[in-house]
Specification:
The chain has 135 residues and is an alpha/beta fold. The protein contains 3 helices and 5 strands. It is elongated. It has a domain of 70 residues: Nucleotidyltransferase, domain 5 (2-Layer Sandwich), CATH 3.30.420. Belongs to the ExbD/TolR family. Keywords: Cell membrane, Membrane, Protein transport, Transmembrane, Transmembrane helix, Transport.
Length: 135
Amino acid sequence: MFGRNLNDSSDEEVHVDLSSMIDCIFILLIFFIVSTVFVEETGVTVNKPDVGGASALEKNSILLAVTAEDKVYYGGESIGVQGVVGKIKPLLAETPDMPVIIQGDKDASHGVVQQVHGQAILAGAMKDHISISTK
């Protein structure tokens, strides 16, 4: 165009500096990693009964699950009702006010859920909740 000859067939290569774009990608990657929310799960699927108006439960907590077969799980490991105290007592020794959340399947026996609740109290739980679905 200006000062260029259209018939000039030079072998010049156009070089695009991509270092600033790579920097932007790394900054975005760091942003998304830092802003990711990690949710602790119990490791088993529990069908909770539906209840309207339930409050949201705290994120930093001890999660116990009671399945429809009345098995008790902590962190994906089957611990049974008798294993509740042994698993959560050391955690409550570190953080005494950490809530214990019991996720009871809607087909689980009420007695087993209450036994887990009692074991959590024996372990020293000051805050304990029974998790429900808010559909």
